[in-house]
Amino acid sequence: MFRLLFAAALLSLALSHSTCGAQSPASPNPDPNAAALPAVTEPQTKTATSKKVWTNENLANASGKVSVVGDKRNQKYAVTPDKPADPATVTRIHDSLKKLQTQLDGVNQQLVSFKEFQEGGTVSKADNEIPQGYTRVPVNQQIPVLEEKKKKLQAQIDDLLDEARKKGIEPGQLR
User: What is the pLDDT of residue 153?
Assistant: First the structure.
């Protein structure tokens, strides 16, 4: 183990010494006047990929074009004025949202009723209407189905609201 560490240290020392490029002070100078002059080292090259991060303190020293967030003169996209939303689209989305919200309210009401029944309390409203019929599925199996239906309805409502937002419809127009 010690030999391996020692060999690695020697190798890194040898590599750093060979890439350093510095001249040893014991090297003979053929010109006697050159010894009086200071040794000139090669200039270090900067990497072209490094980017400078400017702060508020040194922004005045920046030369060239500096992008400032929120600067209206330096926008890469054209701002289009808001167009009024199509009334037919507003009506369609409003009606769809109203229908989905009614369904969601019904599912929420059934969930509350089933949970009250499961806890042993009295059911606040009888939901067994004649057109719906009766079911033999236990309540504890109906609750996850209703919760999944609730998630789907909520996702559909969110999709409609996103569509309305993308088409420039204000939220107040859908109420």
Answer: 97
